[in-house]
Design brief:
Length: about 270
């Protein structure tokens, strides 16, 4: 496969789907929202965006399977050549519902557990982040790279996942340890965009637990190709099948990771991976 050319096509798809999200947001009504779980929402916009994405990607690589958030297509761990698309048609749904930035389209291509292509299109700023294995990380045609900040000057991202009771001790511990130590802490509501912020040097580190592959697959490749590091909370570079992710510039990775890691997170199973 010519990964650079495939990446360009995936960027085109992500921009088209992002355009749909932008148009739908203008007339979006709260009555269109359905609760999937506690504080976890979906609407016809997520599902239509996913159908658009799947149809376009199926034409691009008919042999690839799909793993998607909304399940509008039959889920397949891998296609005939070990290939699968990992798709989040609208990462940051709660932000979208409330007309608040950021939200994005996130698409990754994997072969078995190897990340080959990652594309994240942030709708509100109209930015397309992308990477392919061995090709570096890019933002709208410009090469990007991670920062060189140390912990004391770091600008970091954290997040509040939906599993509040399990995660509350983790996030309270992390904020208690980092507030006043780092230069700033932000919560933006989109894992994929946060990881791209790390890749572009806007954030120095970011982490979250209880997220799914479609939240982090594309961003993980973009961070790594930008010179950063991505692991789970235990420090493992093999993130296939995990639900807790840390991305950083590499310099502060271990310090930041150790502020997030607790045995509680590691012990809690995620039904997706049973």
């Amino acid at each position: 496969m010519e990964l650079k050319n495939i990446t360009a096509e995936v960027c085109r798809v992500a921009r088209e789907v992002g355009g749909y999200l932008r148009e739908e947001r203008r007339g979006f009504k709260q009555g269109n929202v359905i609760a999937k779980g506690a504080h976890d929402y979906v609407s016809y916009v997520d599902r239509t965006a996913e159908q658009m994405t799947v149809e376009a990607l199926a034409e691009l690589l008919p042999e690839a399977g799909f793993v998607t958030e909304e399940g509008t297509v039959e889920q397949s761990a891998q296609g005939s050549k070990g290939l699968k698309w990992v798709v989040d048609p609208l990462d940051g749904t709660t932000n979208f519902i409330h007309d608040t930035a950021p939200y994005c389209v996130s698409i990754a291509l994997q072969r078995d557990s190897e990340l080959l292509v990652g594309v994240v299109y942030e709708v509100c700023r109209g930015e397309c982040f992308y990477a392919w294995a061995g090709g570096g990380a890019w933002l709208d045609g410009e090469r990007i790279g991670v920062s060189t900040s140390r912990m004391e000057e770091a600008f970091v991202g954290l997040e509040f996942p939906y599993r509040a009771e399990e995660y509350k001790p983790v996030i309270l511990n992390a904020v208690d340890k980092m507030y006043g130590r780092v230069a700033g802490i932000r919560f933006n509501g989109s894992a994929a965009v946060s990881m791209c912020n790390v890749a572009a040097g806007r954030y120095d580190a970011w982490g979250e637990a209880f997220i799914k592959p479609w939240d982090y697959a594309a961003g993980a490749l973009i961070v790594r190709e930008a010179g950063g590091r991505v692991t789970d909370f235990t420090g493992s570079e093999n993130i296939e099948g995990t639900h807790h992710i840390v991305a950083s510039n590499g310099i502060i990775h271990e310090e930041f990771r150790l502020e997030l890691f607790t045995q509680e997170v590691e012990r809690i199973p995620d039904p997706l991976f049973k």
